[in-house]
């Protein structure tokens, strides 16, 4: 029996399966900086403040000078942001700030309510400033939707990595953000995350296969899970005997191993796996609750409290010209990458 249940083409916003809400792959080829963290290029013809055009290979998103997402609220779910290239500047209503990238992961539990900004500062005036990231929205169960907000950094050098070689010596590299594989165990997720709940079997992995490389994705530790494998880079790949092209989402049986082989140019995959929460989902923009009453309450609470207010002068803060990655937590503790 084939481990493949369904293959679905993906648009800019990838469809996911419970407990995930969606995934976006931002890949922007930003030009040189103008010296003030924005692109040294004309913004004429772009819908500034709402630019998702991809014109010239990049977008401003909701930024008006610096690309990115100025202050905006969330309630009832989590964001997991994997930055593959470039730098992201985070600020939030808890008072936390961070500059992260180059393989780092930020995990934010919005819970009862959080306001944050995610800006893409362009630091280099002498060369291009590419940015590539995944942002994954992970649902929270009813019992944890009003948990205290939490901000966590998972630095690249602390994420487990493994390289497997096939019979011809061709390599497959695996990086674990969540979910163990044998003795490989990533840092723990935030305490109120669905990923932290016993039996969730949640996994977020990236896989990079060299040209022609073969590797078998092992069966999950338990059944009853959603399991989707996304092909996002490379010309083509073979998944359980079927040829696939980027960008598709391949829904898999969790209880079966899945043979993979890269095409002639190599390929990359993102795996999202977890036990479904199996609760109703009501969403209005950045609020994800179980019913419309919960969404209306979230809107009213945000209008009334601003989820604690915004402690920064700008809605789109950036953190200076120093490219070194760091995080300052709400209690004042400072971490530095590497």
Automatic annotation (TrEMBL):
Transmembrane segments: none annotated. It holds the Pfam family Pirin. Residues 63-138 form the Pirin N-terminal domain. SUPFAM superfamilies: RmlC-like cupins (SSF51182). Signal peptide: none annotated. Residues 205-308 form the Pirin C-terminal domain. Belongs to the pirin family. PANTHER family: PIRIN (PTHR13903:SF8), PIRIN-RELATED (PTHR13903). This is Pirin family protein.
